[in-house]
Design a protein that fits this description.
Elements: H1 5-18, E1 22-31, E2 38-44, E3 55-56, E4 59-61, H2 77-83, H3 90-111, E5 116-120, E6 126-130, E7 136-142, E8 151-159, H4 160-163, E9 176-183, H5 194-209, E10 220-225, E11 228-233
Parallel strand pairs: 1-8, 7-10
Antiparallel strand pairs: 1-2, 1-4, 2-3, 2-9, 5-6, 7-8, 10-11
């Protein structure tokens, strides 16, 4: 007996609602060297299942091995504590640090920009040794049910001068192309996800209040529950 199409749609919606969001990390890299803050964004390809043809910050899901990656400097203690949600256990701190390490790894994979250094690892294979010391934790957002993919994304931010990054070193990748340094005050015409624009607006407001973005600053947490959209503070 064939299923009614509405039943199929219901089943798909229920499956999406049950889909557990996967940990992910994204990085806002800001260049303020000429006095006008610019943020790095790139366009996702049309073949992507999730957010195709949209401009986003570099980022992606946390891999299992991210928490075991080497690093030069750890996160600021205030940032690490906020990522761990007040849980001082080794597992919670390792998970939080792993998210930051994922953000730095995704940055180099998608844009060619390195925060830290590359070292020769086992069998002569180059490995990333990230520098987490300049990263702020500025936002969190969980993809609502009903999407083809769901992520629990933590958004980090750092400045090119603090992270020792040369803005001219960007290079397109298979994940992100048309990489650009964009004026943070002139992005109204750019095709980007609504949550990306919302978080960018939050960051701009924070920077107007204090351009240094102190490490312990609060940030927004966006999520949906029973069809309603919520904003809390992390």
């Amino acid at each position: 007996m064939s299923s009614h199409p509405f039943h199929q749609q219901d089943a798909a919606s229920q499956a999406s609602a049950r889909m557990r969001p996967r940990d992910a990390a994204s990085l806002l890299l800001v260049d303020r060297t000429d006095g006008t803050p610019r943020v790095l964004m790139g366009k996702r390809g049309s073949a992507h299942v999730f957010m195709p043809n949209l401009y986003v910050f570099p980022g992606g899901r946390r891999d299992r091995g991210d928490s075991r990656q080497a690093f030069l400097r750890d996160l600021n203690p205030l940032v690490l504590a906020r990522l761990a949600g007040g849980d001082a256990s080794t597992a919670a701190l390792s998970r939080g640090r792993g998210l930051a390490l994922a953000a730095v790894r995704e940055l180099v994979e998608e844009t060619g920009l390195l925060i830290g250094r590359a070292e020769n690892g086992r069998k002569g294979i180059s490995r990333l040794v990230a520098d987490l010391g300049s990263l702020r934790y500025v936002a969190r957002a969980i993809t609502p049910p009903g999407n083809v993919r769901r992520f629990d994304t933590r958004f980090f931010l750092t400045f090119t001068d603090e992270a020792a990054v040369d803005p001219a070193g960007i290079s397109d990748s298979s994940e992100l192309h048309d990489l650009r340094w964009l004026d943070m005050e002139d992005l109204s015409s750019l095709n980007m996800p609504a949550i990306t624009r919302t978080i960018l607006d939050d960051v701009k407001a924070q920077m107007k209040s204090d351009p240094s973005l102190p490490f312990g600053s609060d940030g927004p947490f966006y999520f949906s529950r029973n069809g309603r959209f919520f904003r809390e503070t992390i």
